[in-house]
Write a structure and sequence with these properties.
Length: about 210
């Protein structure tokens, strides 16, 4: 729980920072006051690099709580003028896939450790609420959930023991804060921070 509280605090701080950056930029123009004044797109495609915070190991495993990988997102707008009709916002459904690699140790019941690794697949699904705060900047909040599935190395390989390498699958809540710098109406630099992952990539608005 302390780890989740820490991640929650970091996510909240990041969200405030993202909105603060957007607010500073918004002082230079009034894009946020013009509903519909944002890229007209049917789908947003976002390849990205991923840093994962969640330690999802099963019983017997211990190790780094940070994983590295890559993935992508697809976002489909469903409400062009958003929930607040007098500001520049829209709402979409976002989903995707991330591949993440972790290092870990297996602790044997009688003592001792064995170096191993684990690969995880993350399947996030969330609502994306976008706010187009300035000509070049937009921010978003993404509440949702993610499904994950982990593949572990054989923890007994080379030890003389016989056992099966486990897998692990579950569903967890997720929340992300998103910030974008729009190079033009078709591309943006996109940063997403929250739980369980942090990512940086490029969005293509099609």
């Amino acid at each position: 729980m302390p780890k989740l509280r820490t991640i929650g605090s970091v996510s909240a701080a990041a969200l405030l920072a993202v909105f603060g950056a957007g607010e500073s930029s918004a002082m230079a123009d009034d894009t946020i006051k013009h509903p519909g004044d944002h890229p007209d797109y049917k789908v947003e495609i976002e390849p990205h690099g991923t840093l994962a915070f969640a330690n999802l190991y099963g019983n017997g495993y211990d190790g780094s709580s940070t994983g590295f990988g890559a993935g992508g997102r697809f976002t489909i707008p469903v409400v062009q003028n958003g929930f607040i009709p007098n500001i520049n916002n829209n709402v979409g459904v976002t989903f995707g896939l991330d591949f993440v690699h972790y290092s870990c140790d297996y602790r044997f019941p009688g003592g001792g450790k064995y170096d191993c690794s684990a690969n995880f697949l993350f399947f996030p699904v969330a609502m994306q609420w976008n706010f187009f705060v300035a000509e070049r900047w937009s921010v978003a909040a993404e509440p949702g959930l993610y499904i994950y599935h982990g593949f572990f190395d054989d923890p007994c390989k080379g030890t003389g023991f016989s056992c099966d390498g486990p897998t692990r699958t579950s569903v967890q809540p997720a929340f992300y804060a998103v910030g974008r710098y729009h190079f033009n109406e078709k591309t943006s630099l996109t940063m997403r921070i929250g739980y369980p992952t942090f990512s940086v990539g490029v969005s293509f608005f099609m």
